[in-house]
Write a structure and sequence with these properties.
heterodimer; A: about 260 residues; alpha/beta; Rossmann fold; 7-stranded parallel β-sheet; 7 helices; globular; B: about 250 residues
């Protein structure tokens, strides 16, 4: 089998749709054996070669079962991509305790329990690469996404801790911070605007590359981080945002 | 499949430690490569790599590079501004001549070569510029004052160019290496006393327990240069084996 991930065994959480699905398909194309999971039933159009488990990522027992199942099915794990995430369009004062539990459960605890379950498996086999999905929202705040922004800052902090603590076991850990990626999640954010069309046009002009991102843009970075090409990359937050954050937010030329 | 088929690339500092690795990698990926540097050096040129004499601080020399690329290839897809020097001095020890020299190479050189390269990149319908920043542009190494300042300037220039030339299809990023095993690093070890103990100390402060290689850097540059990275622009890509993710602390 050729491909840049030939022989690699990868677990990608949240691979049913969106960014995770683009990563699953790209990794498969590049020769990896892939296992993924999601909240719902196995998507009908998921390629047959991909192993799928339906589970709640915040449940340590279900994640431990996923790890055992993945180890049995793949024979080891070289790459863990913590992609599963949810978004909540609320300011802090509107956020309930239940909101906290569900959002932090997936975005923060889910990453924690997955890393805890998979690091020993990876270390036992000489190490591997953990790719977390952070966000530009953890670097600069997106409005009305209070808990989401904070949950992604947790991911960035944990990424550095894992890199520092488990580097000597051969484990690299990095995060990708996507900007505006056109998924169902991003569309629902535009729907909050008074004039969604105008909001979208404005957002587009703030991207030097002239478009929003797509799942495949993130999959391309994930592929590099999963491969041995990135053997010296660890502890970093790699922003893939079409240039959005490199440009000042104040652009009088727009008005 | 090679990721840079039919691409034309210029690598300044192309005969230095990291530059050579980038040129060799680009050539393996199918690109036509111009390795531009002050001198050709003794190492053989890989197939697909042409040497071009270049002083990045001299506008006429840079114009000559642009004319040569235009005449021989008619366009440019990838520009890597890898030419750079270090001066191991504090501000008080640095003469004005030292300061001007390091800014001339690391900053003015990046400016001049980009200025000549941009029209050629537009001729290709867009492309990728990869500048050389450093983790020293974020946090300082002692005794490298002017060097740290030049790298901070390159970081800001990278964002500015990404902003101005993104609409023309040109992506601009910087790679920010940590400790890479090059002649520059070896000379740093040599100047600092007990080489073996220092090398071990440097390894031990890296979570990955090694320093980087020129090939590690070439791997990231090749990704940023390729169409894989079409949504990556305006960023500073630190590659340091985890060094700056970890707070340096007392050994207990």
């Amino acid at each position: 089998m050729s491909g840049r991930l030939a022989g690699k065994r990868a677990v990608i959480t949240g691979g049913s749709r969106g960014i995770g699905r683009a990563v699953v398909e790209r990794f498969l194309e590049e020769g990896a054996s892939v296992v993924t999971c999601g909240r719902g039933a196995r998507p009908a159009d998921l390629p047959d070669a991909v192993g799928y488990r339906s589970l709640s990522i915040a449940d340590p027992q279900q994640v431990a079962d996923l790890a055992a199942w993945a180890l049995d099915r793949l024979g080891g794990v070289d790459v863990l991509m913590n992609n599963a995430g949810i978004q909540l369009e609320k300011r802090l004062t509107e956020s309930s305790d239940e909101d906290w539990d569900s959002l932090m459960g997936v975005n923060a605890k889910g990453v924690f329990v997955c890393c805890r379950a998979f690091i020993p498996i990876m270390a036992a086999d000489g190490g591997g690469s953990i790719v977390n999905v952070g966000s530009t929202s953890a670097l600069v705040a997106d409005g009305t996404l209070a808990l989401y922004n904070a949950s992604k800052a947790f991911v960035h902090g944990l990424t550095r801790s894992i890199a520092a603590d488990h580097g000597a076991e051969g484990i690299r850990c990095n995060a990708i911070a996507p900007g505006w990626i056109m998924t169902e999640m991003a569309d629902s954010a535009f729907d909050l605007a008074q004039d969604p069309g105008a909001a979208k046009r404005d957002a587009l002009r703030r991207h030097p590359v002239g478009r929003f991102g797509e799942g495949r843009d993130i999959a391309a970075m994930a592929l590099w981080l999963a491969s041995d090409e990135s053997a010296f990359a660890s502890g970093q937050i790699y922003v893939v945002d079409g240039g959005l954050l490199s440009v000042s937010p104040l652009q009088p030329g727009f008005f | 499949m090679p990721s840079l088929s039919s691409k034309v690339a210029v690598v300044t500092g192309g005969r230095g430690g990291i530059g050579q690795a980038i040129c060799a990698r680009f050539a393996r990926e199918g690109a036509r490569v111009f390795a531009a540097d002050l001198g050709q050096g003794s190492a053989p040129l890989p197939e697909g790599v042409t040497f071009q004499t270049l002083d990045v601080t001299d506008e006429a020399s840079v114009a000559g590079l642009g004319a040569a690329v235009e005449a021989e290839a008619g366009k440019l897809d990838i520009l890597v501004n890898a030419a750079g020097i270090a001066i191991e001095k504090t501000v008080e020890e640095t003469s004005l001549a030292d300061w001007n020299k390091i800014f001339a190479v690391n900053v003015t050189g990046t400016f001049l070569v980009s200025k000549i390269g941009l029209p050629l990149l537009r001729k290709a319908g867009g492309g990728s510029i990869v500048n050389f920043g450093s983790y020293d542009g974020f946090i300082a190494d002692p005794g490298l004052a002017a060097y740290c300042a030049t790298k901070g300037a390159v970081h800001a220039l990278t964002r500015a160019m990404a902003c101005d030339h993104g609409p023309q299809g040109i992506r601009v990023n910087a790679v920010c290496p940590g400790f890479i095993d090059t002649p520059m690093l070896q000379s740093f070890f040599r100047d600092a006393g007990n080489i073996e103990s220092l090398k071990q100390q440097v390894r031990d402060i890296h979570p990955m327990r090694r320093y980087g290689t020129p090939d590690d850097v070439a791997g990231l540059v090749a990704w940023l240069a390729s169409d894989e990275a079409v949504y990556a622009s305006g960023q500073l890509w630190v590659l340091d084996g985890g060094l700056t993710a970890q707070v340096q602390q007392m050994r207990l």
